[in-house]
């Protein structure tokens, strides 16, 4: 019997960064050294979800993205809450691979019968022209999950970048807000999922040539 596998976009991102680190994390529970994880982005993410939900209740878009995105906010709060839940989320079990893919969306837009994934991104600076490229696999996976659960999509998703602009009275911080439309490819998302499962069921792979974690580990072993 094959070992159960459930993968998320973050796990697949690790696979793309370094197959060896991914294999060790999933098969041996040997993880990369973790630095101090800033809690502020997670806190802002939670605030943004509540903020968007207020406009959802009114059937409106937040003013800073109105006219800049296609569609309206998904109005099924119960469904969205399930999709946001890291323990539930959107899931797809592939019988051929005997593996599961899951993801937790931040939000979703509706344009007629089409569903458009939305993800909030908090940054310390304005987004660069290529800032969206790091998140393409994540959005591909979200689109794949929608597709496999019977939801139609438009072939694009949105990243909404939030970066601090200035502080004003009463300890309030104003943010720059930039919605960015990103082309998505569900087939590309599936190919990454398929390749990651294949790697996990095989022998330990080689490190990615640019993996600094593996390079540090090798240096440490050689030093010893």
**Range of strand content:** 15-25%
Instruction: Give the tally of structural domains.
Output: 1
Secondary structure tally, helices: 7
Query: Given the helix and strand composition, which structural class is it?
Result: alpha/beta
Note the main sheet.
Answer: 6 strands, mixed
Give the tally of β-strands. Answer: 9
Along the chain, the helix and strand elements come as EHHHEHEEEEHEEEHH
The CA-CA distance between the termini, in Å, is 39 Å
CATH topology: Lambda Exonuclease, Chain A
Q: What is the C-level CATH assignment?
A: Alpha Beta
In the predicted model, the low-confidence regions spanning at least 5 consecutive residues are none
**Radius of gyration over C-alpha positions, nearest whole angstrom:** 19 Å
Fraction of residues in helix? 25-40%
Arithmetic mean of pLDDT: 92
CATH 2nd-level architecture: Alpha-Beta Complex
Shape: globular
């Amino acid at each position: 019997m094959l070992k159960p596998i459930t993968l998320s976009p973050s796990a697949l991102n690790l696979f793309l960064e370094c197959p060896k680190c991914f294999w060790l994390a999933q098969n041996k529970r040997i993880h990369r050294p973790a630095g101090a994880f800033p809690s502020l982005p997670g806190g802002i993410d939670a605030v943004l979800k509540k903020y968007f939900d207020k406009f959802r209740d009114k059937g409106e878009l937040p003013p800073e993205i109105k006219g800049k995105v296609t569609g309206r906010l998904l109005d099924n709060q119960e469904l969205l809450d399930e999709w946001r839940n890291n323990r539930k989320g959107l899931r797809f079990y592939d019988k051929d691979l005997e593996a599961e893919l899951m993801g937790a969306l931040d939000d979703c837009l509706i344009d007629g019968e089409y569903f458009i994934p939305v993800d909030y991104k908090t940054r310390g600076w304005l987004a660069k022209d290529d800032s969206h490229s790091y998140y393409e696999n994540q959005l591909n996976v979200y689109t794949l999950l929608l597709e496999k659960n019977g939801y139609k999509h438009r072939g694009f998703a949105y990243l909404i970048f939030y970066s601090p602009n200035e502080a004003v009275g009463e300890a309030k911080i104003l943010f720059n807000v930039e919605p960015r439309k990103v082309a998505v490819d569900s087939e590309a998302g599936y190919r990454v999922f398929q390749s990651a499962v294949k790697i996990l069921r095989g022998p330990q792979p080689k490190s990615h040539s640019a993996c600094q974690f593996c390079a540090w580990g090798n240096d440490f072993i050689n030093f010893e």
